[in-house]
Amino acid sequence: MAKITLSKLRHSYMPAPKSPSDYALKEIDLDWSDGGAYALLGPSGCGKSTLLNIISGLLVPSEGQILFDGQDVTALPPDQRNIAQVFQFPVIYDTMTVYDNLAFPLRNRGRDETTVRARVMAIAEMLEVTEMLDQKAAGLSPDNKQKISMGRGLVREDVNVVMFDEPLTVIDPHLKWKLRSKLKELHQRVKATMIYVTHDQTEALTFADQVVVMQDGEVVQIGTPVELFERPAHTFVGHFIGSPGMNILPCDLQAGVARFGAHAIALEGPIRGEAVGRTEVGIRPEFVALADKGLPATVTKISDVGRHTVVECNTDGCKINAVIDGSAPEKGASVHLDFRRDQTRLYVDGWLATDPSTPAEAAS
Amino acid sequence: MKTENQKAWFFVLPVLVLVAFNALIPMMTVVNYSVQETFGDNVFFWQGLDWFEQILRSERFHAALGRQFLFTFLILIIEVPLGIIIALSMPRKGFWVPVCLVTMALPMLIPWNVVGAMWNIFTLPDIGLLGYFLNHVLGISYDMTQNPLAAWVTIVTMDVWHWTSLVVLLSYAGLVSIPDAYYQAAKIDGASNWAVFRFIQLPKMKTVLTIAILLRFMDSFNIYTEPFVLTGGGPGNSTTLLSIDLVKIALGQFDLGPAAAMSLIYFAITLLVSWLFYTLMTKDDLN
Amino acid sequence: MQKRSIIPIVYILFLMLPIYWLVAMSFKTTNEILSGFSLFPQTFTLENYVTIFTDPSWYWGYINSIIYVSINTVISVAVALPAAYAFSRYRFLGDKQLFFWLLTNRMAPAAVFALPFFQLYSAVGIFDTHLAVALAHCLFNIPLAVWILEGFMGGIPKELDETAYVDGYSFPRFFGTIFIPSIKAGVGVAAFFCFMFSWVELLLAKTLTAVAAKPIAATMTKTASSAGYELGLLAAAGTLTIIPGAIVIWFVRNYIAKGFAMGRV
Q1: What ranges make up the beta strands (E) of C3-122?
Q2: Which residues of chain B from 238 to 267 reach within 8 Å of chain C, CB to CB?
Q3: Could you read off the pLDDT of A256-274 as tens digits, one per residue?
């Protein structure tokens, strides 16, 4: 187990990158502490797999360093980094039995058979595959195959980090949930540092203690699931996380007050710095309420999503979603929308530009 | 899942008619000859299974069959490992891939008698490139019209030249179909190069290697034109393979009955050995 | 990585040497060939090629070969397409046995069939025609084409067929305008292999022809034996037989590896 540090890391697939857009991965600095569960979340092509391959050593970064427990491993090949990786498609050795598959990484490192046996049995029990140990791995179902490839990663007691590259892609939906909770349970038992790459927000938010959200090769926010939900640092995070995503309204800034058309919108707190650029107001649908006064809008669509109702409204050509409990208005009805003040934030050029107000300010 | 549909027979009917026309009628003719004796003028006498007995007991047949098996054995033992090694060392992508594939496939596209003629010219003792080199540069006495060993080395080398590329192309096709993740996982698991070959590449090449071995068996076992053009079966009978002997009997001596019986035995052996190969190589998949 | 590439390089050199020697011979005069060893043609001559292109018995050999090879390729692929479709999509009585029987025809030694073929094609009156050779080569080419095409078709999901029927396509229209274009690569590979095996086969082609449809390869054997040592001419004719194959393979170079992999056992 190890603490992982990425220092001034950049990567380009081009031989001589010039502009920032030539980089598949823009400068990244971060620290992951020992034994944590992390997720890399982002749409396909955002650079998360590139980052993963750099950490595992399959790819050498153009610039910067990777440190495991303060030791520079940037130039080390994968087998010397003591890492494990689980791939999108289950990688198993077809001709071997399940037992031999699990024993393979240990045997390659010259462990004696007693140790191998003990480790394999322990891991098999954790994964609940003990009764399959003598079977040929080729005949297993996809979810069991994926379990075996996870097992190969966990079987070595000295791994620095276990990485998962969208491991549930080929798993049937009803088994995804089972495998996901198994993974969470494993993390708590083996206490290894785990990095989980996915484009699925549910997978990321349920697995990880801390989520790194990426877009276009850039880290846009690092935070706990709650932080990502409540205070998206970037409109992209607001959009990407939550269902439906955050409402984003273009607004004008006049004398420190955000205005949507003629309507002034109260923000959570003071605006940081100059606030020059494209200004937008962001608010999650969960914090928009239908009220007697507020922003006038017309209801365009009602979707019942079970416990709540999503009311889609239109105001001046701009779409705003509101999640409400209880009875919903008719389609076409005129309503007023009320934004909860402490959840209403300003974004400048996509980035968060307000700070929460102090209790004193909020009271006034 | 495939659906049951007997009308599908109409789709295969043209194939069936054409292949049956070419396979069944000549086959029946052969069977017909194999049980009769003729002295020309289309007069035939019932002979029963005498020809079969005679062929199966003839030393000439045993010798030809022995040479045939030796030839096929040498071909498989050389071409299959060599083909795999070459495929493993070929680049996986880039400009050189099509260049390699095209140049390697070229020998297979040369008419078989031209292959024989080409090797004849190539190995002529005093004016062929190889013959001159062996005799006058290395000082090895080499003349395949005189020395049976030289003749054998030449026909085997010629076949290696002609057909190893088939094994290369098939193995290569198997290799490039392996996803990168397998190699990455093996690296992470600390597998040696040998382990990567043994547990990843070889299992993934199994299907195409089965095809390669079957094709190489059938074609080398039935080979006729190239060695016939190159050595004519000589010197003496040293390179008279089964098919060369068969044609000698059928067209040279016009002994239709024995030739026909021999054809059927020949065909039966080919089928039997192919079936054995196929069963042995696919038996793991069944359980 | 770099050290490994020595193996394919040596192998390709080994493949090219006899071909180089054939080509070099074709540019030598008979005198030079018989007078001794020379690595390069000393007196470069095109005489051998001139002979071939001016003598009808030579150049007609090429034309004959190309005609029957083309006819065979068209017939083989055309009949193999529906059959391969049937094998890849439907179960029917005796399908497995039929498929296996087709493949066994590749195992029959051509030598076995030479004489019966001669009699059969004489009996139906098409001896010494291009059609006779083209039909005879169907024996081993159709099974091969069915095999390759079935492999490619197996890779096309059945949903494609179903969607087309739902969209109101008739079977022939679906087959012609949707299905065949989606296995273009497979058709190309199958045609390539039919071309190849028909082009290189000589025994049957020689047996089934006398004058009118005689293939180039057969013309060559005659020259080699009867006219004594016309090695230069033989080499030139041989060189010319390599060209069509080389052209065809260049066209399918990107599919060839895939084509091999798609076939199934």
Answers
A1: 90-91
A2: 242-243, 246-247, 250-251, 256, 259, 263-264, 266-267
A3: 788 887 788 888 888 887 7
